Amino acid sequence: MGLPPGLGPRAGGHRRRRVHPVHLRAPGGLPRGEDPRHRGGGPRLPRAQRGRVRAPGRAGEGRAGRGAPAGQAGPPGLSVRVLLAPDRLSGALTAVAAARALARGWAEGAPDVDLAEAPMSDGAAGLLDVVAAARGGTLVPATVPGPLGEPVPAAVLHVPGAGGGTAYVEADQVLGRHLVAEPDRRAAATAGTSAGLGELLAAAVRTGAGRVVV
User: Fold this and answer.
1) Alpha helix locations (H) across the chain?
2) Distance of alpha carbon 82 from its chain centroid, rounded?
3) What pTM does this model have?
4) Which of 12, 180, 197, 206 is the most exposed place for a label (fewest CB within 10 A)?
5) What is the helix (H) or strand (E) element at residue 117, kind and residue range?
6) Contact between residue 161 and residue 138 where contact means Cβ atoms under 8 Å apart
7) Where is the sequence biased in composition, kind Low complexity (predicted)?
8) CATH assignment, 123-214
9) What are the b/e assignments for 134-168, b being 16+ CB within 10 Å?
């Protein structure tokens, strides 16, 4: 009994299999002769139709912004609210000033957006500004000793409320590195004092606040 044509032995003992043209299919499932992407023959699409079809929109534009008119942050009819919550930029802007600058930029670029400013603080410099912007209150000035005993102007923020309200103390006002010159910082590490912070706490208690936050 003989083997079917195309499956007979050849030199080296290997058998060669004849493959019908219908088995030669391109990735899309069409035979090669019918696939317009195949360069070996068959009908081909015009060059203008071979490129990738893109959704309408400007180059580099994200999905959320496709088709949105200039100055509009999202699709028509969609209300967008942006929360601006920066911390301070050391040596440049306070947190409050940074939030206002961001708000001005957003208002110019997207006037239909609802903006909310919420400047933040990690508890260091700028704490009183952030709390005052959010809750109001009264700044109570005080002059206390700095790290090396020199008089330093400071303040306590008193926010009225139940039980006498809350007094906020910003320790950086009297203990911050900015109060000591670079050559004196090594000496301040051993000879410095935190008495100024204690006096600020006493000033906070004198406001009548039932709660003190440092």
Assistant:
1) 95-109, 127-135, 172-175, 185-191, 195-206
2) 12
3) 0.56
4) 12
5) strand 114-117
6) no
7) 66-76
8) 3.90.1510.10
9) eeebeebebebbbbeeeebebbbbbbeeeeebbbb
